[in-house]
């Protein structure tokens, strides 16, 4: 079933068939050395694309101005205390934004949203949890988003353009979305082929900010969403394990090993 609710909405494909998903995923990736698309998996298709900072700000009833103040405070605190818990590289991390990927990695709230260059990594996050809900794999064309943002707001990447960078401290900043990567990848970031979207408007929902700028179409050229019915989740997770996409490979370390063994128990309960 193909769904598109309104102009600018994400083009949506519902599939419970593994072969069909792979066909759509490979089509979305294209034929280049890299896919040119970013993918994000969410275990509940009803969730929008809200950052961890936005979700907490909404729960606390914070304004955009107050959220920016709190964001600055927690970034400074993380930067001053991280060395007590984490061994970082010897070169210092300069500035505010370069700290955010590390904060994201250690589950501190940030305005970053995680994506992957792999549709199969994204699929894992769509099917591994919440088996009572349909999951979703979101995707968009990176270069298309960059071009549309440049046409709309001028400049390029908000982390490199001084004019755009100043917008991060403005409570009424427009919703300019950049695609960024960490200056230093952790083992987990590398395993998940990770990258991020980052918006100059601190309270922006990336669902709206990206979807309105890169309207989807049936050719998967701009923005799209694969919905995985809940009944298909166990089978998809089993097939991903055959591809060695498990918690053990995506979360290197003992924690990932433990999570991976938990997956096996849950799959055994579904007879797959």
Please provide a written account of the structure:
The chain has helices at 18-29, 52-60, 64-81, 100-105, 119-127, 142-153, 162-165, 187-191, 206-213, 233-242, 247-250, 254-269, and strands at residues 2-3, 11-14, 37-42, 112-116, 135-141, 177-180, 194-199, 223-228. It has 272 residues and is an alpha+beta fold. It has a 5-stranded mixed beta sheet with strand order 1-2-8-5-3. It contains 12 helices and 8 strands. The relative contact order is 0.19.
Strand content: 5-15%
Could you say which overall geometry the principal axes of the C-alpha atoms support?
A: globular
**Which strand order spans the largest sheet, edge to edge or round the barrel?**
1-2-8-5-3
The N- and C-terminal alpha carbons lie at a distance of: 26 Å
Query: What summary fits the major beta sheet?
Result: 5 strands, mixed
Low-confidence stretches: 1-7
Rg over CA atoms, rounded to whole Å, is: 19 Å
What series of H and E elements makes up the topology? Answer: EEHEHHHEHEHHEHEHEHHH
Keywords summarizing the entry:
272 residues; alpha+beta; 5-stranded mixed sheet; 3-stranded antiparallel sheet; 42% helix
Topology:
Blueprint: E1 2-3, E2 11-14, H1 18-29, E3 37-42, H2 52-60, H3 64-81, H4 100-105, E4 112-116, H5 119-127, E5 135-141, H6 142-153, H7 162-165, E6 177-180, H8 187-191, E7 194-199, H9 206-213, E8 223-228, H10 233-242, H11 247-250, H12 254-269
Parallel strand pairs: 2-8
Antiparallel strand pairs: 1-2, 3-5, 4-7, 5-8, 6-7
Helix pairs in contact: 5-10
